[in-house]
Design a protein that fits this description.
The chain is mainly α and about 150 residues long. The protein is about 50% helix and about 10% strand. About 10% of the residues are buried. The model has no long low-confidence stretch (mean pLDDT about 90). This is Transposable element-related.
Length: about 150
């Protein structure tokens, strides 16, 4: 499992886990370990930013929601299957395209390639992804909620 978070003027460490993810693992080994909430609070102020995540079960469990709501504003619920409106999903897509031609020999090489990509992410790329959200939202509205894949 690969996890990373981005935001306006911040990026988490890339977290790679070789175990299944449940609520406790998500809170302890991802949210706490990444320090993303602390980083965002330092950058933007407590409760002056919104945490967005997809609808994976560990993200939407009562325990996770309670944990997050004590620490940040939470965009909840988030519509299922809405990668067009999630900047990190767009970043994963960019990563897939850049890694297309690299063929790792084993898991260790694959992880190294992932880390190299993550460490090469520029602030300009993050800013462009985040600032594109207004246009993306308008395109989805114009398409009556349908995907904008291929339009942007």
């Amino acid at each position: 499992m690969i996890w990373g978070a981005i935001g306006c003027n911040l990026i988490s460490d890339l977290i790679i886990l070789n175990s299944s993810i449940n609520t406790d693992v998500y809170i302890k080994d991802i949210l706490k370990k990444s320090k993303i909430i602390d980083l965002a609070n330092q950058e933007h102020g407590i409760f002056n930013w919104i945490f967005q995540q997809d609808g994976a079960r560990p993200h939407t469990s009562k325990k996770t929601i309670k944990y997050l709501k004590k620490r940040c504003m939470l965009l909840d619920p988030w519509p299922p299957n809405s990668p067009d409106l999630n900047p990190i999903e767009n970043l994963w897509s960019i990563m897939d395209k850049r890694l297309e031609n690299r063929r790792p020999d084993n898991e260790e090489n694959f992880i190294q390639i992932l880390k190299e990509f993550w460490d090469s992410i520029t602030w300009e790329l993050l800013e462009n992804l985040i600032l594109s959200m207004n246009k993306r939202i308008q395109l989805v509205i114009n398409r009556d909620g349908h995907s904008i894949n291929g339009f942007y």
